[in-house]
Write a structure and sequence with these properties.
mainly alpha, Arc Repressor Mutant, subunit A, three-stranded antiparallel beta sheet, coiled coil, RecX_HTH_2nd, Regulatory protein RecX
């Protein structure tokens, strides 16, 4: 059986220790297992004890990482999983930790998506396509995205948001000291601006018709 040749507390922690064994291995252990198995220099450990220390300590370690990561602001399931992978946690443990956190309500992709969408709805600066792309990048499912964007349509007028943005952009274009642009160039600039903001073609088309009273514009 491996023999403990050294035991050191990790720097800046009170609960974590490194156990050094005479076979060259070292084990990260939570303090509970130091106490449970009365570990000290000269102590022999069975393989069962070593396995328990490793698996249980890794689970505790992963939970600490996850809860600390969530303490600053809400996160999606994908963000938490990626954080744990960055810290070297294995997939088995990641699944267990994420499932526990979800059960406690600390990860909720639906509520995250709602908050994300309606926070940006108040700012009135982007369209639904941009919102969808941002949520997809955060690992939110298409089903949840479709649901929250559908909810958004009941309280947000996409056309009015795009129209306000386009009018401000048009003022900038007209007041620019650079070369004056003809109407078709102005339309093109408005189109490109709204497309970058994530508005779809139907909305952009309607906005340009409203502003210019016609739509003789080649994309």
């Amino acid at each position: 059986m491996p023999l403990v040749i050294n035991l050191k507390r990790k720097k800046r922690t009170k609960e974590w220790y490194l156990i050094y064994l005479d076979d060259g291995h070292e084990i990260l252990s939570y303090i509970d297992f130091i106490i449970k198995f009365k570990i000290k220099t000269g102590k022999q450990l069975t393989q069962e004890q070593i396995d328990e220390i490793k698996s249980s300590s890794e689970l505790i370690f992963a939970k600490e990482i996850a809860y600390k990561f969530l303490s600053s602001k809400p996160r999606t399931q994908k963000e938490v999983e990626e954080r744990l992978r960055q810290k070297g946690v294995n997939e088995n443990i990641i699944s267990r930790v994420v499932e526990e956190i979800k059960n406690y309500g600390f990860i909720n992709d639906l509520e995250y998506a709602r908050s994300f969408v309606f926070d940006r709805a108040r700012s009135k600066t982007v369209g639904k396509f941009a919102l969808k792309q941002a949520l997809l990048a955060k690992g939110i499912s298409n089903e949840i995205i479709d649901q929250v964007l559908s909810e958004r349509e009941n309280v947000v007028d996409e056309f009015e948001i795009a129209l306000a943005l386009a009018n401000r952009k048009l003022k900038q274009i007209k007041s620019s000291k650079k070369k004056k642009r003809d109407k078709n160039e102005q339309k093109r600039k408005i189109y490109e601006f709204l497309a970058r903001r994530g508005f779809d073609w139907d909305v952009i088309n309607s906005v340009i018709r409203r502003i210019f009273n016609d739509f003789k514009f080649e994309n």
